[in-house]
Amino acid sequence: MEKLLPYLTLVFGIFLIYIYSKLKEFDRAYQEMNKKDWKINLLPKPSLFVRLFNIIVGKFGASLLVTLIEKTLVNFALMRSIKRMKDAECSGKVPHILCDAGARKAMKERLANYAEGMRLSVAYTSFAKISLYTGALQLLSNHAGLLQLGIEASDEIVHNPVFIVSMPRTATTALHRTMATDTTCWNTFDLADMVKPLPPISRSDQKKRAKLATKVRRATVDPIKLFYPGWFECLETMNSQVIDEADEDLGLYNSGLGILYQDTLLHLHPKKTIEAMALESKEMATYRYAWLDMIMRIYQKLEPDNNKTWLMKDPKHTAFLPQLIQQFPDAHFIFIHRDPSDIVASMAKLFMAFSCVSVNLNSPRVKSADWGQYTLKKASFFLNGIVQYTKAFSMAEGKRIDFTFSELTSDLTGSIERIYEMCFNQKPSKQAKETMLTYIKKQKHEKKEKQPRLLTDFHISEKDVVFDEYRKMFLSSFS
After folding, report:
1. Residue 252 in domain
2. Do 15 and 103 fall into the same domain?
3. Looking at the structure, do residues 299 and 447 belong to the same domain, yes or no?
4. Gap between the Cα atoms of 256 and 294, Å rounded
5. pLDDT in the model for residue 180
6. Most buried residue, 21, 47, 449, 463, by most Cβ within 10 Å?
7. pLDDT tens digit string along 264-310?
8. If you ran DSSP here, which 8-state letter would residue 329 be given?
């Protein structure tokens, strides 16, 4: 053994030199990518642990770990969910689309495709693959538990929900969170509800909700800050992540699908894997909205005397408005219209800032030009949904209200009064107005650094963002 010691020391020394050179190589390439292409202010950087993990484990090691987790932990959690789906079907109290043989088959295929996508992905780093894939364990546990609660809430009915259905980067978050401060009127979901939905906690129980926010912060936010220092601060320049304030509906889909919905759409490769999962299909939208309805009913049951109205928000609703109406036929819609040339660059910058800590620098869909093309496709998808819905349904039905971005942002409280008149034939109470104004003032005082974002940064021209039909239909009529 003593004779081997010098050789082992030499090998270990060479290994350390290799690791050090790889770390320096990544740091240099990461900074160069940002300087030449990304141009992200407050660029976050993966922690030393994450960078070491990516170097040591590598693509092959990550694939092996994904397979090991899939064949053991995920399969066990999946079987538990499948059993709960069978129980839900037998009860007759959960919509069949959420639990019948077709739903069970789709869940199995979705998880299998997810694992395969993680193994084949060239976009995600090893650490990102493992951390995202293991997230399926908690989501499947949530899925099983929420199905059981769905059985118990089968007698609930969601009446007259209000959906903010507008493109990203159109002040929907400001509108949503400001209106949600009127807790006597609106039911909303916080980010904490989406991360830890079990056990569900009623909106009126402020003490338990404060504890929930603390749990989510410690279990989710703090580890992310540890692994990706500065990431939340970077995202804050584009879209604030607030644990205990109203958030988008799309986080609620994760538990219904067993996977992280938005992250999968952003980065999972190859393309055929995404297509196999059919996450952007009309059929999947119908499933998602049935799941959304069930979650809303679960929370309604927590407060039997609650006559508040659900206020929901998700830019993706724009592409699936017929499916949304099918699930919620008495819903009201709020549209905010903004020049696509102002939206697209901001969307692309958000996607890039969101993903920069998790991607391989030499992989597809990493450079600004790639994000530009991806965002153009998304913008076309969303805007076409709004146009087609408007063609199919009359503007004068009293079920929708439209604002331009400048109209909304210049007079937010006046716009909210118009929304209340549409929904309730009355204005907000004096107390609600005061609460909203206090919230608005607080947000104005919390000034955040802005990210540079120009169309040319993403190799996009003004011709690419004409979207002529949308412009003619809205930006001329409502300006």
Report:
1. yes
2. no
3. yes
4. 10
5. 96
6. 47
7. 777 665 566 666 678 889 999 999 999 999 999 999 999 877 789 99
8. T
Give pLDDT tens digits for 221-248.
999 999 999 999 999 888 888 899 999 9
- For the sheet containing 162-164, what is the strand order? 186-187, 309-313, 162-164, 332-337, 400-404
- The conformation of residue 54, written as its DSSP 8-state character, comes to H
- The whole-angstrom separation of Cα 74 and Cα 115 is 10
Q: Clarify whether residues 99 and 4 are in a common domain.
A: no
The encoded tokens of residue 470 equal 């949308």
26 and 132 part of one domain: no
pLDDT digits (tens, 9 = 90+) for 329-385: 999 999 999 999 999 999 999 999 999 999 999 887 789 999 999 899 999 999 999
CA pair distance 203, 21, nearest whole angstrom: 52
Query: Do 361 and 30 contact (CB within 8 A), yes or no?
Result: yes
Q: What is the pLDDT of residue 273?
A: 64
Number of domains in the chain: 2
Residue 459 neighbours by CB under 8 Å, 6+ apart: 368, 369, 372
Q: Quick check: 448 and 242 in contact, CB under 8 A?
A: no
Helices of type H across 282-367? 282-301, 321-327, 340-355
For residues 423 and 377, give the distance between their C-alpha atoms in angstroms, rounded to a whole number: 33
More confident call, 120 vs 294? 294
CATH number at residue 341: 3.40.50.300
Helix H or strand E segment including 430: helix 430-445
Residue 43's pLDDT is what? 95
Give the whole-number percent of the chain exceeding pLDDT 90: 77
HSE, CB side, 13 Å, CA atoms: give it for residue 194. Answer: 24
Of the candidates 468, 466, 474, 470, the residue with the CA atom closest to the CA atom of residue 403: 474
- H-run or E-run covering 226: helix 222-227
Q: State the first-to-last Cα distance of the chain, in angstroms, to the nearest integer.
A: 82
| β-bridge mates for residue 124, sequence order | 359
Range of the domain at 292: 48-475
68 shares a domain with 185: yes
Average pLDDT, the chain: 91
Residues 13 and 161 occupy one common structural domain: no
Return all residues near 270 (Cβ < 8 A) that are at least 6 apart: 117, 120
Domain co-membership, 354 together with 453: yes
Q: In the structure, what pLDDT confidence band is assigned to residue 479 with cuts at 50, 70 and 90?
A: very low
- Name the 3-class secondary structure at 311: strand
What's 73's DSSP letter? I
Segment 134-151, tens digit of pLDDT: 999 999 999 999 999 999
